[in-house]
Design a protein that fits this description.
alpha/beta, FAD/NAD(P)-binding domain, five-stranded parallel beta sheet, 11 helices, 26 strands, about 25% strand, globular
Length: about 425
């Protein structure tokens, strides 16, 4: 019996998952084709809503979808990628607590490993900063904020209390602005449950290296976002960088020193370090791929999303690493793999950004769609409507819509989600 054609997808983010979803409808039905998805988590995380988990707007399970529910025909390998051998066409993987090692061979390899946080060589940031990339990050931040409020409420010494109630976010892009808007709303609403704390005690600070927030949009929307955040008590430092961080203090490039134990870093990303081990042409760490998303010099190896540097023929620049690009790349890539195996015409990836949106909390937002600007309630409504439509699975859409509806009538719960085991004893009978 002939060996099946093996398609191996590394990474279950927007690019990898949507490649698998589209192969699920086509090649994965065929007995002579085997499609395998390798992912560290057994779920797909809808990252545009991540800040809402940290801010207690959504339940922690409602923005994740189990990949085994999404994919029926595609095989799932829940584990880590340890190494990639392009010459031998083998991927080294491991799984389980004991890191059992396996070798997965392939005929077609899809690289969708995503990106990681970049601290730009700062040891202080690496050792002390919180991040907002994963579901675990959002849960940890929420637990950390609540723990600080609980401790500060009964702390009578101002010097000890100060670092507990000062919160700093670095980065004025989408991730930073949405994170600080969410946590600012959460902290100030939670104060009703902490009688010894008042609004004037809380400091929520945004640090941005540029002169306008949300540079991905335009100056007008950036200024609007700045005004809204400032009106809600957020302190904003523009044209400023984080110079140093330790466990109790953040030092800014303008000389400002902020006493805090909460530094959230959203100001830098880098492609997955696994790409550095590959003998491929790269551009700023991302694999250079042609218009069909095939890695140059390696037939049968494909890249998309944050892993790929693909040139937009209209602008001559590379496509931005956004979710709306990655999911559409996944659809085109699945078609191109099928064309390579079954024969047919491959499609180039050509896409123009439809729009970009950011939530600013308290039912306001900013958006730029087809070149038109929206702000305030209309932009917030567009943000929720569009992302709700993009969220996989009807069940999750319904759960998120229900969470948002209940949020109109009830206060956020300042509840920590800890994974501590119950105390036990072992006494003689």
């Amino acid at each position: 019996m002939n060996e099946p054609m093996r398609i191996l997808i590394l990474g279950g983010g927007f690019g990898g998952l949507y490649t698998a979803l589209n192969l699920e409808k086509t090649l994965a039905k065929d007995r002579d084709v085997e499609v395998t998805l390798v992912n560290r988590e057994n779920f797909f995380l809808f990252t545009p809503m991540l800040h809402e988990v940290a801010a207690s707007d959504l339940d922690i399970t409602h923005i994740v979808s189990p990949v085994r529910k999404l994919l029926k025909r595609v095989k799932i390998f829940h584990g880590d990628v340890e190494g990639i051998d392009l010459e031998q066409r083998i991927v080294h993987v491991s799984h389980g607590n004991e890191h059992h090692h396996h070798e997965l061979s392939y005929d077609h390899l899809v690289l969708g490993l995503g990106s990681i946080t970049n601290f730009y060589g700062s040891k202080g940031l690496e050792e002390n900063a919180l991040t907002m990339k994963t579901l675990g990050d959002a849960i940890f931040l929420r637990n950390h904020m609540i723990s600080n409020l609980e401790e500060a409420d009964f702390e009578c010494c101002p010097k000890i209390r100060e670092p507990l109630i000062n919160f700093v976010v670095a980065g004025g892009g989408f991730a930073g602005v949405e994170t600080i808007a969410g946590i600012n709303d959460f902290l100030r609403e939670a104060l009703r449950f902490y009688p010894h704390l008042t609004e004037d005690m809380i400091r929520v600070i945004l640090v941005h290296a540029g002169d306008t927030l949300l540079p991905e949009l335009n100056e007008k929307l950036g200024k609007y976002s700045e005004e809204k955040l400032r009106s809600r008590g957020v302190e904003i430092f523009l044209n400023t960088k984080v110079a140093d961080v330790n466990g109790t203090e953040v030092v800014l490039s303008n000389g400002e020193r902020i006493i805090t134990n909460t530094m959230i870093w959203t100001a830098g990303t880098a492609p997955n370090p696994m790409l550095d081990t590959l003998p491929c042409e790269k551009e700023r760490g991302r694999l250079c791929a042609n218009e069909y998303m095939e890695v140059k010099g390696f037939p049968g190896v494909w890249a998309l999303g944050d892993c790929a540097s693909i040139v937009d023929p209209k602008t001559g620049k590379t496509y931005p690493p956004t979710a709306q690009h990655a999911l559409r790349q996944g659809k085109i890539l699945a078609h191109n793999i099928r064309a390579s195996i079954r024969g047919g015409r491959r499609k180039p990836f050509v896409f123009e950004t439809i729009g970009q949106l950011a939530a600013l909390g308290r039912r306001t937002g900013v958006a730029q769609i087809f070149g038109y600007n929206f702000s305030g309630f209309a932009a917030w409504w567009l943000w929720r409507t569009i992302y709700l439509m993009k969220l996989p699975r009807f069940e999750k859409k319904l759960r998120v819509a229900l969470d948002w509806t209940l949020d109109l009538f009830f206060h956020k719960d300042p509840v920590q989600f800890l994974t501590l085991r119950a105390p036990t004893v072992s006494e003689a009978e």
